[in-house]
Write a structure and sequence with these properties.
- With about 210 residues, the protein is of the alpha/beta class.
- Helix content is about 20%, strand content about 20%.
- The protein has helices at about 35-45, 140-145, 155-170, 190-200; strands spanning about 10-15, 50-55, 75-80, 80-85, 110-115, 150-155, 175-185, 205.
- The strands form 2 sheets. The chain has a 6-stranded parallel beta sheet with strand order 5-2-1-6-7-8, with helices on both faces. A two-stranded antiparallel ribbon has the order 3-4.
- α3 packs parallel to α4.
- The longest helix has 14 residues, at about 155-170.
- It binds pyrazine-2-carboxylic acid (VGL) and zinc ion.
- The site of zinc ion has 7 residues, from loops.
- Zinc ion (ZN) binds near residues 55, 57, 63, 91 and 116.
């Protein structure tokens, strides 16, 4: 891609969960999670369409290990909607941990999709909750605006970014992963599984240097 040529009108950048709790010092810190903030800010300037997502759980959310006596973070349990990794309490609605990283600077973002708001179900994908059927409305939002190619950046590569990519691809959207603008949690083989999924769905890998 030639530098500075305007991106096609159908392109949208989705910045996933760049929140304090997913950065070093946070409750569910992703290694180097904060290192993606500066390149994301730079790259976002090239996009006319930007959407932010925000993990946004009620206290006692079912994805928290603390809600399951005898369980600890990173255990896996079976929920009515399938298998669920249990997490430390994180991104509790309106807490400092749930706030965007203070250096995230994307004032032209047009929408914020909040996910994981229902007490009894987790949500990684920014399109569907983990039952894979309860929608967030993002498919309709993108469709109505004619946005058909999504660039994904953020945290965590092996959870929210991965499931967002899968759902987007299932809806016929073209998916680009901006690899240097993502970081992974990497628990129980999740990073390898995510990479395998990305190639299975034909997601394109790019770097932010190719975009700025
Ligand atoms: C996420 C674990 C728990 C994510 C959210 O956004 O990737 N991961 N909640
Ligand atoms: Zn969460």
């Amino acid at each position: 891609m030639t530098a500075r040529r305007p991106l096609p009108e159908r392109d949208v950048l989705i910045i996933v969960d760049v929140q304090n709790d997913f950065c070093p010092g946070g409750a569910l810190a992703v290694p180097e999670g904060d290192s993606i903030v500066a390149p994301i800010n730079r790259m976002a300037q090239r996009f006319a369409h930007v959407i932010l997502t925000q993990d946004w759980h009620p206290a006692n959310h079912t994805s928290f290990a603390s809600a399951h006596p005898g369980r600890k973070p990173y255990d896996t349990i079976l929920m009515p909607y399938g298998s669920q990794t249990l997490w430390p309490d994180h991104c509790v609605q309106a807490s400092t941990g749930a706030a965007f990283h203070p250096r995230l600077d994307v004032p032209h973002a047009a929408a914020i999709i909040r996910k994981g708001i229902h007490p009894d179900i987790d949500s990684y994908s920014t399109f569907y909750e983990n039952d894979r059927t309860t929608p967030t409305g993002l498919v309709g939002y993108l469709g109505e605006r004619g946005l058909s190619r999504i660039f994904l950046a953020g945290l965590a590569l092996d959870f929210c970014v991965r499931y967002s990519a899968e759902d987007a691809s299932a809806h016929g959207l073209e998916v680009v992963i901006v690899r240097d603008c993502c970081r992974a949690i990497n628990v129980n083989g999740s990073l390898d599984q995510a990479e395998a999924k990305f190639s299975e769905i034909g997601a394109r890998m790019m770097t932010s240097q190719e975009l700025v």
